[in-house]
# Entry
Amino acid sequence: EVQLVESGGGLVQPGGSLRLSCAVSGFSFSDSWMTWVRQPPGKGLEWVANIKQDGSETYYVDSVKGRFTISRDNAHSLLLLHMKSLRIEDTAVYYCARSAWDSFDSWGQGTLVTVSS
Amino acid sequence: QSVLTQPPSASGTPGQRVTITCSGSSSNIGAKAVSWYQQLPGTAPKLLIYNNDQRPSGVPDRFSGSKSGTSASLAISGLHSEDEADYYCAAWDDSLSAYVFGIGTKVTVL
# Structure
């Protein structure tokens, strides 16, 4: 069974940092592009970043470039998102997802990040 | 304002056919595959359609996708009450070097 489990969300002050993790099982993690997608409360989905199988390529939405870093640990089937200089508008549920066929075919349950003073 | 344009809402009665359109441009839908996602209230999104018109295993065949030029469509035939959800289209955008989602369409079963 494919499983993606996010963790690391919580309340953080503006300007603060947070690291999200996504533990994966049930498929070959090292063979898959992986993605982070976020959803602000009551709003739509926004793609955040993705990373190639070996970590050699990464892409980011403009609003997080220079602040967020996506990385992966293939030995432990772990996807990471390091977030710094957090802003109120970064408040959202963050989902990790597997990328396949130019789509996101498996999703985690999400972890809530709240940026507030 | 999203790069991909979807209507904010759509509705139908049980058994009806509902179609949601997603309009983009030559740098996204016109050049890349479109995918569609269903998000039931309080849950994570679920892939409904990939590569414009392909259904993952387990997705009922009353969901169908199509693409023509810079627009794509999701059709739900024989609407069920459990189809009440938000539906999002998505595609890679070559100009932005980023995936883009539509704003989402809330489907209501009357």
About this structure: The longest strand of chain A covers residues 92-100. Chain A has a mean pLDDT of 97.
